[in-house]
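#struct-queue
[09:14] JT: dropping the first one here, sequence first, then the structure tokens:
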Amino acid sequence: MPTYAIIGATGSTGQQILTQLLQSPDNKVKVYCRSKTKLEKLSPKLAAHQNVDVYSGALNDVQLIADCVANTKAVFLVIGGNASYPGMRMVQDGCQSVVAALSTIKANDAGAKMPRVLLLSSATMNPRMQPDHGRALEAMKFLLKAALFYAYEDLGHAENFLRLQKGWLNVTFIHPGGLVEDEPKGHTLTLDKPPEGFVGYADVAAGMIDVAAGEDERYSWDGVGVLPKSSARFNPEVPLIFGRGLLAYYLPPVYWGFRSMGLVQ
């Protein structure tokens, strides 16, 4: 029975990974979340599963994370979201906690087999996956990078930190295009084909599970794209995400003022 750990199980991708893994009685799942109450609201049937263990608490609780990731085949690091704001380091903190946890396990048992770590990142981080939009869409590309500047900065630092662990860990960077709630379309994995649009959380989750369950060394220390087999719908939240991100990038004091009043996330 393979055992998997999910770090960030209350997010959209984490929820899909959890749901899909539990479709097979052969899988055991260890789930980390900050709030067990929130997880149970999102997954009300979770308590009925005998092959699920939940670990809730602070992300910087190294022993808690170590207990969660110990004796697993793979760790799904799916922390993050659509927000982008100054000082953002959620993904970095998650990576550092998982590495510290695995270091603790290794220190206590030098022979312990390390799991594959799969970090949910973005195709924007992968030079091989940059589509040639032509000059007409260069302005849109510029706005995208500005609107998600701090989120991309967090991902970049997180990826760089994980690459420093190349001598003893096995990491795969998952590089999808824009994410959206959508029905599964089926998926393909790629090492070099740029995304042509959005991809559903369900298909990204399925692609991550394929990488985690397999033994394909091509995916070690490389970026893997997940492409839908048919077009996913447009994400209607894009204008809001763009507006909020551009506000945080160009007018941080105004963004923080609105955030303190609960007007933006």
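[09:21] JT: and here's the second one, same format:
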Amino acid sequence: MAPSAVPPPTTLSGKGDKPALPIISLAPLLDHNQPARQSTASSLLSALETSGFLYLTDSPIPTDLLAQVYTLSARFFARPLAEKDTLAWTTPRANRGYSKQGHEKVSLGMSKDEVAQDRGGAGEDQKESFEIGRDDEEGCPNRWPQGDKEFKEVMLDFFEQCRQLHAVVMKGIAIGLGLDPEFFADFVKQGDNTLRLLHYPGVPAGAFANGRVRAGLHSDYGSVTLLFQDTRGML
């Protein structure tokens, strides 16, 4: 994209007292010769300092790869529960594997007591998930479905593409802060990230009684969260 063709950051109109979310093109951050790189980085930083959320456009991740990820994710969650449970999530340190519907209840609690209080209340999350990490971490193996080579190959490809995109975003944050563009590079190059596949299965309306929700209020761990969604929207 030529420098003159890079659109300025725009916003999605808010509703009521809800803030608008900025829409920022990644193109200037991907092209090192872009004069617009500094202004884009400043807009990125401003969005993170204010709303904390933004929409990124012009992602380098191929759309056909995303389509594969959605298809294989849906295929995985369509497996029988007993089969998925053989790949069950094990420990917080590993943070890999399958979590069935109702297993998790996310929280904004910061202390052990606050978390324990939230866990004791009604309303487990109405979702299921599958966590994937880097595939070479000693003692923390990924839990791959047996006989599904395509699933493993595509998810590892997507994991790496997201790792690279994460590095681009962190570079933009560094530029916005007035730091060396590579300031965060050593912190993110190893790829200690989590790729999380999420599925919100159909449930009866009564499933949301007693405080149950799809996912409770929470703050993600790590530096940034890259959120991809299919055509159903709502995120």
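[09:30] RK: nice, looked through the second one.
[09:31] RK: The CA atoms of residues 111 and 117 lie 10 Å apart.
[09:31] JT: good to know. Residues 1-8 have pLDDT under 50 and may be disordered.
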